[in-house]
Each structure stands twice: as structure tokens, then as C-alpha cells.
Amino acid sequence: MKIFQQRESEVRSYSRAFPTIFSTAKDAYLYDTHGKQYIDFFSGAGAVNYGHNNAAMKQAIIDYLQADGVVHSLDMATKAKRQFLEKFESIILKPRCLDYKIQFSGPTGTNAVEAALKLARKVKKRANVIAFTHSFHGLSSGSLSITSNTFYRHEAFTNRTNVSFVPYDGYFGKNVNTIDYLRRFLEDNGSGIDLPAAIILETVQADGGVNVATVSWLQQLEQLCRDFDILLIVDDIQVGNGRTGSFFSFERAGIQPDIVTLSKSISGFGLPLSLVLMKPEWDQWLPGEHTGTFRGNNLALVTANEALRYWETDDFSKSVKGKSQLLEKTLQDIQARYPELNAQVRGIGLIYGLDIPVPEMTQAISAEMFNQGVIIEYCGVKDNVLKFIPPLIIEENILKIGMETMNQSIKAVISRRFR
């Protein structure tokens, strides 16, 4: 690890939590240079939902390269892009009765968010955007302005004008409807909140602590946007692509956002690709008005085509929901087994959080699980929520082994803390 400490920037993060050198990966496993095997409950922060080195996707890349397929083409039309657009339309959009234009915005999620914000302001000719408490949308300038955590915001001295933060669902507890709160602000010319061009949200706040918005709240938010002529943007970068059980995280609420951002697992293979989906009436860009050198990565489009095969039937979605029940039940059992943790369980699909009030306990459990061969990160404003995001393709027996490792890790940490 010496070369990393000497030459890699202090900004490095995950390598500090998981201090080993990884060399290979397959399906739900990572392996380090010493041959130690780790169950992956991290999935590259949701970038490898379909597992590591998916065989069909890997073969598709090999075949494409051996045929001298176009790798870089700016935004020119290619065979890979045509196939992706056709498959995305037939497999994802049409069965869900969704009509979206697709913009290839750049290599990573924050590029999609930046484009969505720019487009919303252009279309509505308003500057303000509303975001929510505990939100995370990226760390480039525009995305950072709508990310709430002061850890990311204060050191950059980012421009915070034209963004208003309001309470997310459940922020004041179950008995306070924060949509009513927001509606009152928008109706009152003296509230200090300008009518926004857009409201942007994650239907499940992943980095914010695995906060799950209720169906009713999401539906009310959509209606509020319609009542006030505000664009609704759903950031589905981390919790889209099947993470909640359906392809889009908002499907459970039956809503249709004006704009959707996708990245991370849209390529299926961990390759950089990000998209902005927009209703056709909002596609008001002038040609070349928003560009980027690496928009529409052809290798990522090749693997994305293969990833879409998982959604040709309902079988994959059903399997995710089945494993979700196993994960939830196991976490609830752990919650009951260790009352001294005073833990809470939150989640949906294959994203769950175990909220432990003492951050040191959460971090110690993560470290112990790493020592015992499971990769898991923590999240939340206080870094006190263990976040479970295993690959969607993980086998149930591997999931059970990982959860038993967690049980043993908690037992070890509690023993050290209270002995």
C-alpha cells in the first residue's frame, strides 16, 4: 500500500476503509492480491448491479473489439448506440408506457445531473431549484449545489444561490406531511422561496442514510409539481437499474417524472455511461448546446445492450424482490437479537440500511466485516448507517453467508465494547 500513500491524493476514500489491493472479481466476489475472497455488499456504490465480470457482457466487449467496432465517436451515430436505443425503447420504455427522449450526457452521474439542471432552467426560464434534506446528487459544481451534506459543501465554497432545501419525507417524523409544508411555502409570496424551475429528488436517499419515500408522498409531490408548473426530476443514478426491484425506482408510485437521470449500472459492467431521459416537450436543446467528449461510450453501450436482457421478462425483478424479503427479515432478526445497538432497519429491494445511533459502532462493524471477508460501506450524515447494496444477481446462499458474517462481526464488536 506504500505507493498509494506516497503518490495518490489524500482525497482517496474507499481504499482507507478497505485497506487491501484487489486484483480480480467475479459475480458477487472480490479477490485481493493475497487470494483472499470477499463477498461484495457494496457493488461499486451501485455500479455493478449485475455482478463483476458478467460473462455475457464480457464476451460482447471481446467480440466488439475483435470486429474493430467504433470505441470513440463523440455523439455520432454508431451501431452500438442504435442497438441500445432500440432495446431501451422496446424493453424499458414501451412496456411502462413511458415516452422519453434520451440524452447521452457524459461519463458519470454528476454529468447527467448537471445537464438536467441546465435543461430545466432553460425550459422554464427560472433560476431556482428545490432539493431535499439529506440529498446527494454529485460533487461537480451544479450537482454539489443541490447536495445537502456540509461535509461535501463547505470546503468547496460552492455557489449556493438559486437552490432551496426543504424537508424530505419523514424528516419531522411520520406525523408531519412535508408536502403540505412545501405547498404552503410555494403559495406564500413572503416565504422567501422563489418558484423553482424544478424539484429534484432521489426516491430512496442512498448516501443520505437509506431513506425511503412513501408512495403517497411521491404521488403528492408529482401533483404539486403539476399544480405549480414545476419540472419533476428523479435522480435514479444509484437506486435505478433494478436496485429497488423494478427498473426505475419510481415505478412503485406510478408517477412519471419530467426528467430522469441514470448512470452507474446502466452500462451493466461498471463502464462509464450516463443518460438524461426527458419528456419530448422538454427536449429544447439547440444542436451542440450541451456537449462532452465522452458522451455515449460505445463499449458501455455494448454491455448495456446485454444488461437490458435481464428486463425482457419479470423474472429478474421477481428474484430481486424475493432476495429483498430475505435481507429484510435477516436484518430485523439482527435488530431484535442485539437490542443494545438500538438499531433501525430501512430499505426496499436490495438496498437496505441498518441505522445505529453510535457511528463508532457502525464503523467498527464495517471494519470487522472486512476482516472477516465482506465488503460493506456506511452512509448517512453521521456515517452511522450500514448500507447493504449487494449485486442483484447474488445467490441466496451467498447472501446468507454474508449476513451470518455480519452477525458474527456485530457479536465481536459488542463483546469488545462492553466487556
Automatic annotation (TrEMBL):
Q: Does the keyword Transferase apply?
A: yes
Keyword set for this entry?
A: Aminotransferase, Pyridoxal phosphate, Transferase
Task: Please state the Enzyme Commission number of this protein.
Answer: 2.6.1.76
**Is Ligase found in the keyword set?**
no
Q: Which SUPFAM superfamilies match?
A: PLP-dependent transferases
PANTHER family, per database record: DIAMINOBUTYRATE--2-OXOGLUTARATE AMINOTRANSFERASE (PTHR43552), DIAMINOBUTYRATE--2-OXOGLUTARATE TRANSAMINASE (PTHR43552:SF2)
Under which name does UniProt file this protein? Diaminobutyrate--2-oxoglutarate transaminase
